[in-house]
């Protein structure tokens, strides 16, 4: 299988960004909806800094276990230091390689991972499904229209944001519309009892929260700058775009939202 490419959001503070923006209450609600229950074994695909894995590990007690897998040694070191326990462990792996070395699981969780795998997303989901026992549950959760829905910005910023996302699609294997594809992945793999839920993930208006400011500023500082787009709408290029984005995002009149799509199914 093809090996994973460079992670789009790689930077020194990525573990902190991911940890800050992860809400345990939301994770718990999503996981219970998908069917996670005490006594299950669960694998967290692309576990990052481990906060989600730890929450999943709590939900399967008593009697369950959680394994987080990721390619990044930096994120795994953070996870082991902050969230490792007797029932929660972390392992390094390439998600395109067989996951069977960790055993088979009752439940597989994959959230905010597939958006980084545009050209080979179905291949990745099929590989994840192989780590499930027959009758096991696969839960896929990701965004749709990612980073594209704002109001209150200038026409040139709207054009620049759209062009930046297009550049990330072409150059970095980024998929801003993967959420709408999740159902088809489970359907094509023959999963049963499939269910889908659509909600708002980002819903930002009024005074800006610190976590949203940090999260979105890092997206622009890392992903947008790395995209290869030249920001020709701005005489000052990327730096002028960044300045305008910060001013727009700090304005309490601004409205930003992103749909999140959750899909669960049972392996035959």
TrEMBL record:
SUPFAM superfamilies noted in UniProt: S-adenosyl-L-methionine-dependent methyltransferases (SSF53335)
Coiled coil segments of this chain: none
GO BP: any one term: methylation
Keyword Transferase belongs to the record: yes
InterPro entries: Methyltransf_12, SAM-dependent_MTases_sf
Pfam families: Methyltransf_12
Segments forming domain Methyltransferase type: 43-138
Keywords: Methyltransferase, Transferase
Protein's recorded name: Methyltransferase domain-containing protein
